[in-house]
Known about the structure:
- The complex is a heterodimer of chains A (199) and B (129).
- Chain A is mainly alpha-helical and 199 residues long.
- Chain A has a single domain (5-195), classed as Serine Threonine Protein Phosphatase 5, Tetratricopeptide repeat, CATH 1.25.40.
- Helix content of chain A is 68%, strand content 0%.
- Chain A is built from ten helices and no strands.
- Chain A is globular and about 45 Å long.
- Chain B is of the alpha/beta class and 129 residues long.
- Chain B has a single domain, classed as Phosphotransferase system, mannose-type IIA component (Rossmann fold, 3-Layer(aba) Sandwich).
- Chain B has six helices and four strands.
- Chain B has a four-stranded parallel beta sheet, with helices on both faces.
- In chain B, helix 1 links the parallel strand 1 and strand 2.
- In chain B, helix 1 (13-27) runs parallel beside helix 5 (99-111), helix 2 (48-57) crosses helix 3 (71-82) and helix 5 (99-111) runs antiparallel to helix 6 (116-125).
Amino acid sequence: MTIDSTVIRKLVKATAERIVAHADELTALDQAIGDGDHGINMKRGFEAILADVDKISALPLPQALQAAGTILVMRVGGASGPLFGTLFMALGKALPDVPSRADAAQAFAAAIAAVQVRGKSEPGQKTMLDVLVPVQCALAGDRPLRDAAAEAAAATVPMKASRGRASFLGDRSIGHMDPGARSSQILIGAVLDVLEEKI
Amino acid sequence: MSKVGIVIVSHSAKVAEGAADMVRQMVGTEIPLAWCGGNPEGGLGTNVEAIMKAIDKAWSDKGVAILVDLGGAETNSEMAVEMLPAERRRKVVVCNSPIVEGSVMAATEASGGASLADVRRTAEELSPV
């Protein structure tokens, strides 16, 4: 699939708009089991990406992703900055200019591995990985991604957190959706909307 | 004799500054010391750019030990280290120790001219090597 300058511009706008629209929801989720800044932090990062949309969309896809990732690292202000920043940067490093679905699945797997190293975490600990990993499996297995992301985010509700700030709560983290899993689902949804030409 | 530098990274600028004040009072001004705290807008959080600047400010050829408080401070510090030039990267460590006690212990060890590995071990074990 060719992801040219026009599509990259749409991707930047769609992801930023979606994060801004859900910022309060993400913050509310984070207030339940974290430190209550996930929505505002992600909003700050994605607004900074949006402010640079002209520069980013002039780049080939791999470099555009790396530029966006660097902005997240620098601007988010919480652990989610390096984590989502690493996801974007590693995706950029692993994707060819014109990726096939198989290329995307392979690059997504490499990006997930980088996030695991950065966060010293693994799936099942109630983190963003619990959405990213099932979505990568769906991507590799040619299954619908939107459903996989939604199911995976919902599946974090009964999980007990063992990584991140929510792990301080122990059993009290059970019964809430993980904010990073939810923001991952939101971002994936926005990307799919653009790539499926819904917006 | 060059001494290991100390960087203090907290979610709160007040905590970071307070820990640095304690280091200065207990250990003195002979070691390179820098602190940072807060997100890019000045609220609670941590900030990779500020951490990189603090590493630069406390730079020593003997290396720099970073003391952090909670998870995001650690993740952002590790990210900052990774974004340093390669020749500096291997001379910076993030210590796994409580921020106030670790800062004072690390600085005390550093003031005697100890190596980066010894400074880190002292901070992490909270007793001199």
